[in-house]
Specification:
two-stranded antiparallel ribbon, mainly alpha, 462 residues, elongated, 4 strands
Length: 462
């Protein structure tokens, strides 16, 4: 097991999951890269988070509880890609509490993404179209025969599947008619009973069963028929592949620019599109091709971490919250301050990604959060890093810098950053773990080095 195996596993787990501890990376490196990818895209082969823990410790429909539960899953689930795909689809199929105001519907939507996120795109779009949170978010509960509401039909084509320029206004009108009557049962009022789920229902008395012409075909189409035609269009896998590339590989321009801005790597999009058609739209097979591709392996640190990725990655580094803890709920507001309020994206377009995650305020929040989290030498992950460095006893300042960067990532930094880190190491002299005072002093120096590392520009990249 060499350094390259560790670095490859770390890169994969930053993208297909939320990072990993050094011990986990060593285990993943022993598994081997291709086998690790297969394990990630076939999560049914590993145990899921114990549902009894979720129900016991994260019971209730308060916002912080539900986001705390999701953080617990992101930190502890062995099905890392399942959680990452839920976050991916939450971004692409953005649905917000600002309008819905029904916490159970919001959390149920994430559970739906968790369950079908690696399945066939036809199934994913069908479940999305049946989802009460989405139906209410885009007003399809008001979409009735003779009074069509085009909101869902428009976004299904523009932002959820095909992209601008791949359909006509007439297609939007026909899609809207096909989804008439796709609504939900009104849940019992929140007060004084608590949350009850909304249930999808097809109202035949609201449905327009007349002839419709959609993407050149004519028939008495229902919503399933529209989805069936969408997933067979050449534009659909291109559009979805560009989303996948932006989320898992490297930062792209924002979605509104896609009609005029070509993909960053057109060959990668062609590869993913081919995988889509060869597999019949199976997302797990598309993801298998993506993670095993050269364009993915060569794209280390080519994305700005989202707030959720940054927070979960830091918490994995310091090794906390591996057991249920109500304090985990606080991180709902932490990511919100960094610009990502989970379950409440700002618009139907989702969050703007890449360097748009960063401004003066959010950068301060990101750095302060990371530096504060690694400052406690008593946290399990920090104790492990200190113990590994003590066992190695770095011979020079350069060795100490290299070892800390390796154990905090492995992380690649520029020469200016490395020089600054080396300058701090040199200013403190040699490490000496002799005696309690020596060990305490050495631990403090290592913690300070880690604080500097997580404050670098390079640490903001995945």
């Amino acid at each position: 097991m060499g350094e390259n195996g560790i670095a490859d596993a770390a890169h994969l787990m930053r993208r297909a999951g939320f990072g990993a501890s050094r011990s986990e990376l060593e285990e993943y490196a022993r598994i081997g890269y291709d086998d690790l990818v297969d394990m990630l895209v076939e999560p049914e082969g590993v145990p899921d988070v114990d549902q009894d823990i979720i129900e016991r410790y994260y019971f209730g429909e308060h916002y912080n509880i539900r986001v705390g539960e999701w953080f617990y899953r992101m930190l502890n689930s062995k099905r890392q890609l399942q959680e990452k795909m839920a976050l991916f689809w939450h971004h692409v199929f953005a649905t917000g509490l600002a309008k819905n105001e029904h916490m159970l519907s919001a959390s149920n939507q994430i559970e739906m993404f968790r369950l079908v996120g690696l399945s066939n795109l036809r199934e994913i779009l069908t479940e999305l179209s049946r989802d009460p949170a989405m139906i209410f978010w885009l007003d399809n509960n008001e979409n009735r025969k003779g009074e069509p509401n085009e909101n869902y039909g428009r976004e299904l084509l523009e932002l959820f599947s095909m992209g601008v320029g791949s359909y006509t206004e007439q297609d939007i009108k026909m899609a809207a008619r096909a989804f008439t009557g796709w609504t939900f049962t009104q849940p019992v009022p929140l007060y004084p009973h608590g949350y009850y789920p909304a249930r999808f229902v097809k109202r035949s008395d609201y449905h327009d069963d007349g002839a419709k012409t959609f993407l050149g075909a004519t028939g008495a189409f229902d919503g399933e028929d529209i989805i069936g035609m969408i997933v067979e269009q050449p534009a659909t896998p291109v559009f979805i592949s560009r989303h996948l590339y932006n989320f898992f590989v490297a930062d792209e321009p924002q979605v509104p620019a896609w009609p005029i801005e070509p993909p960053r790597d057109p060959e990668a999009i062609r590869t993913l599109t081919a995988a889509y058609f060869e597999s019949g739209g199976e997302m797990r097979e598309v993801m298998r091709v993506l993670f095993k591709s050269d364009f993915f392996k060569h794209a280390r640190f080519a994305r700005v971490k989202s707030p959720t990725e940054l927070v979960t990655g830091v918490l994995k580094l310091v090794g906390t919250y591996r057991d249920p803890d109500p304090d985990l709920m606080q991180y709902a507001s932490v990511t919100a301050l960094m610009g990502q309020e989970l379950l409440n994206p700002p618009t139907v377009e989702g969050w703007h990604t890449g360097r748009e995650w960063i401004d003066g305020g959010t950068m301060n929040e990101r750095i302060n959060f990371a530096a504060d989290e690694v400052s406690d030498a008593g946290k399990p992950g920090i104790r492990e890093i200190v113990a590994r460095i003590e066992a190695d006893m770095p011979a020079s300042a350069e060795d100490l810098v290299h070892r800390c960067l390796d154990l905090a990532g492995p992380l690649e930094v520029g020469e200016d950053t490395r020089s600054a880190l080396r300058g701090y190491a040199e200013s403190c002299g040699e490490l000496d773990f002799a005696g309690d005072e020596g060990r305490k002093h050495a631990s403090t120096r290592i913690v300070n080095m880690l604080r500097l590392i997580v404050s670098t520009t390079e640490y903001q990249l995945a």
